[in-house]
Structures are given as C-alpha cells and as structure tokens.
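Morning F.,

Quick status update on the modeling queue. The single chain you submitted on Monday has been processed. Sequence for confirmation:
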Amino acid sequence: MFKCAILGCRGRARAHAKAYEDITRGTLAAVCDMNEEALNEFGDMFGVNQRYTDIDQMLEKEKPDLLHIVTAPVLRGTMQPIRYPLLKIASDHKVPSVIIEKPIAMMGEDWRQIRDLAEQTETKIAVNTQLHFHPQNLALKRDVAEGKIGE
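Structure tokens below.
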C-alpha cells in the first residue's frame, strides 16, 4: 500500500483526494496547508486525520511514497514562484514521487531551477495534465482525427 499526501487543500486538491475512492494500492494518509481553516475542512471532508501546516514537518513524520503538490504556482498575493522550492523540499526529504499541478513553471528562471533539480534528484516528478490519456478523451480525439465530428 502506497502512503500518499497532499500539499494544498483548495480547488483542484478535491479531485486528487476524490480519486482515492477508486485507488486500491494507495491511501491518502496526510494533508498540509498553511490555512488551518482550509486544512481542517478538507481533512474532515476526506476523512484524513493527519493534518499539518508545515510541509517539512509532514514529510519528516509521514514519509509519503507520493506527494501531490496542488498549490498555486505562485505564493498567494505575490508573484513569487513556489513550485521549485516545493519540489526541492520534496527532493530533500527523499519523497520517491511527486504529482504536481500545471503549470510547473511561470517564468524562465523557475523552469531552469526545476530542470536542474530534475538532473540531480531521485524524486520522480509528474505534471498533472488533466486526463489527456483518459480512454474517453482518446476516443474523442480519434473521432475528430477520422472526421467523424468537427472539421
């Protein structure tokens, strides 16, 4: 059984947590958000008791096999990119795998930092691209390509 955790308890995080209803090889074990109200609402909604406001503390104690990073790409209220720092934290804690919401980078510099990290880390990073390979989406694309619908 894979131990999974979510960082960021708003918006898209609900879809990530809801997916665990259909996942048999993983369990949502912990959640983290700086906003305690959002954290507790989310934890109650999905039955997750291990709740943290500090990412380092969560990763140190829980040691998840998979971390979902479902935060905004920049620190709320600023234009400060946070994707690289969060990926670096996951890497430093030796989290084996990370799923991160798109966009992965906002500017060239944060993209370069992430690219360089990818060359140094053992953490595997996947960018969530919202069902591009879902069977129904593939069938729709095939229908368009074959001229069954669309121009």
